[in-house]
Amino acid sequence: MRRFFDRLTQARSGRSSHRSSEDDADARDAMADGQRPATDGGVPTGAGTGDGTGSDATPTDEAGALGRGLARLDDRFGEDFVESSPFWLPPFLLMGFFVYGAIAWNVLISLTDYEGFGNADYSQLDFEMYARAFGDPTVVQAAINTFVLLIAFTGICLVLGMLIAILVDRNVRFDNTLRTIYLLPMSLSFVVTAQFWLWMYDYNNGIVNQLLGVVNLGPYNFIGNPRLVLGAVVFALVWQFSGYAMVVYLAALRAIPSEHFEAAKVDGASIPRMYWRVIVPQLKGATISAAVVLMVFALKAFDFLYSLVGGYRPPNGADILATKMVREAYQNTNWAYGSAIAVLLFLMALGVIGPYLAHQYRNDNL
Amino acid sequence: MAQLSLDHLTKVFTDDDGSDIVAVDDVTVNIEDGEFLVLVGPSGCGKSTTLRMVAGLETVTSGDIRLGEESIADQKPQDRDIAMVFQSYALYPHMTVRENMSFGLEESTDMSDDEIHERVEDAADLLGIPELLGRKPGELSGGQRQRVALGRAIVRDPEVFLMDEPLSNLDAKLRSQMRTELQRLQEDLDTTTMYVTHDQTEAMTMGDRIAVLDAGELQQAGTPLECYHRPANRFVAGFIGEPSMNFFDATVEGDRLITDAFDYPLTEEMREAVDGANGVTLGIRPEDIEVAADDSPTGGDEFGTTVDVVEPMGNENAVYLGFDEDPTDTFVATVGGMRRIDAGERVVACFPSDAIHLFDDASGDALHNRSLADAEDAGAEPRV
């Protein structure tokens, strides 16, 4: 063990000298032959040289080939590529297999005609299922519903969250209590939210209709009416998640130095103008990250709809791709068709995440 | 252009537990049209609070702020014709320099875009930053940001500039450079300026007048040299000047001052000044102490001392001296930088009687200030 650390420090110093050295190709070769393999953890046999004294000596070629290969990997993928592999390789493989492997398999199944019992037949691959999906009005409607849910839910959550965050940030009374009250629904499970919004939306006794009755409106059949149900679902989800948007915005607002508010005031801006021109633009980062998380929640609204009705068939007018996909696959055993819908949903999710990842990558945050 | 007057200005903060904290206590000071007034004092003395009240960022507890003849104490910040430069610059990070500088004009005036454009260009030229107009604050160095922050105030062409330690985030060299530049700029623009700093070099060099604050109270307002040579009280004497004035607690006995370490003979003039005072403090500035390298004090105002520590500054040496009678009680004197002086050396320190300040122990007020034989206002009656 001691020897290992000795070599490690040696390799380190060797590397730092290599950084400053003009002639770095030579230095790199020397390292590759002499010291580098010793640091590569899992290859003790190849590490014959590099014991204390030999740091500057021309290396003998015992471990040459392996060492050179590893050094080349390091050169190609960045420093410490090989040394760090014990840490990133296992999760990399697990993720690769269970997430990306599963996605790939799903795509493969969607190209077959697999349905009912038995095994998939991979000999004939075509896009028949996709054609069927695009021609299926229920899928198109589900896609539209998903999209509407995504946009409406995210948009309303962001606007509401920002307004509440600004109020809380301006030290309205009881701001801490308010903050807790708004954030609390976030800790509830979808199942709970769905159940009690089901009660609240109840046609006869629900509190929403009772309240609307006070101002001589309704009663409305929020769940049964296909024109209202999507709005009702969005409202319930907004209730649950606007607190999250608030917390993200609040953190961003608190990070803006108070001098910016003061400078804007002294510059002559009214309070709405100050927020609009100075503060809100500085919340761009918070908006992006909150929006991505909220959109992902919107795509996961399956849980909510599932527990709303206790089954795969959501109320008319609230069918989204996720429920449609599960219904096709597990109720109707149309495995290939379900997979095709899943791929469409995946592409939608990618459409949400992709730009964000690209943005982060451009800003060197990835 | 207008005169800015603070009239018995007071600010009281109420703490969470209900106790009151007086941050600014009955400050009255007039800033003439075009004058550069520096508010100076140690941290927490209320100087920034005073400035923020003038800016409208803090409410006024009592007293009044007048700009010209008009009271602005109850106006919103956006209605007061002022521009402020913040310590952290407070540039809007998402806007370019041009947008930062235009913002105030867009919000507070109904100028056309062309006029604003022109004003911004002019201000940028004045500050030598026209090439930065398209950049964002994040791409600028500290000194450049400083200029942009100044530019943002200048384009507004306000009645009053308020500056809250605008140079404190710069490194020493840039700070002294910006100091002269800011002074020149203020002279050119001839705008009434209120400048807050804790740095007494800035206070001494930049201000037409300085106002020294301590614990929320105005200690003295006067020209820098007045505050230096004729401090109103012990606080001002100790705060202005680097290294600061030496103080010795003393009691008056007949025509002598008795301290722990030495006796000092009083002149006739001083005796009158200290008449009736019980305990007094003797003050003398380090540069007024004459240090002679011989070993035989003649008595009177000369004392035998031993050099404790020498701090060479290059242009001068700060020498810490201990009295023979009480070597632990050291005081500081400055001597020329070329003079060779070593720790442990025995020297004679002379406190010339015309350089002595005397302060009342109880009130801290100056009883007697040094005589300014060659200054214009020489021969003025010592302030009592």
Automatic annotation (TrEMBL), chain A:
Parts of the chain that traverse the membrane: 87-108, 147-168, 180-200, 228-253, 274-299, 335-358
GO cellular component: plasma membrane
Subcellular location: Cell membrane
Extent of Gly residues compositional bias: 43-53
Bias (Basic and acidic residues) ranges: 19-31
Protein keywords: Cell membrane, Membrane, Transmembrane, Transmembrane helix, Transport
Low complexity: bias regions: 32-42
CDD domains in the cross-refs: TM_PBP2
Spans annotated as Disordered: 1-61
Protein name: Carbohydrate ABC transporter membrane protein 1, CUT1 family
Organism: Halobaculum gomorrense
Automatic annotation (TrEMBL), chain B:
Gene3D superfamilies: 2.40.50.100, Nucleic acid-binding proteins, P-loop containing nucleotide triphosphate hydrolases
Residue intervals of the ABC transporter domain: 4-240
Claim: Nucleotide-binding is one of the keywords in the record: yes
Cited InterPro entries: AAA+_ATPase, ABC_transporter-like_ATP-bd, ABC_transporter-like_CS, ABC_transpr_MalK-like, ABC_transpr_MalK/UgpC-like, Mo/tungstate-bd_C_term_dom, NA-bd_OB-fold, OB_MalK-like
Reactions performed catalytically: L-arabinose(out) + ATP + H2O = L-arabinose(in) + ADP + phosphate + H(+); D-xylose(out) + ATP + H2O = D-xylose(in) + ADP + phosphate + H(+)
Main location class: membrane
CDD domains associated with the record: ABC_MalK_N
A GO-annotated cellular component: ATP-binding cassette (ABC) transporter complex, substrate-binding subunit-containing
Membrane topology: Peripheral membrane protein
Entry's localization field: Cell membrane
Pfam families in UniProt: ABC_tran (PF00005), OB_MalK (PF17912)
Keywords of this entry: ATP-binding, Cell membrane, Membrane, Nucleotide-binding, Translocase, Transport
Molecular function GO terms recorded: ABC-type transporter activity; ATP binding; ATP hydrolysis activity
GO biological process: carbohydrate transport
PROSITE patterns, per database record: ABC_TRANSPORTER_1, ABC_TRANSPORTER_2
Top-level taxonomic group: Archaea
Enzyme Commission number, as recorded: 7.5.2.13
Assembly and interaction partners: The complex is composed of two ATP-binding proteins (XacJ and XacK), two transmembrane proteins (XacH and XacI) and a solute-binding protein (XacG).
Function: Part of the ABC transporter complex XacGHIJK involved in the uptake of xylose and arabinose. Responsible for energy coupling to the transport system.
Membership in a protein family: Belongs to the ABC transporter superfamily. Carbohydrate uptake transporter-1 (CUT1) (TC 3.A.1.1) family.
Listed name of the protein: ABC-type D-xylose/L-arabinose transporter
Native organism: Halobaculum gomorrense
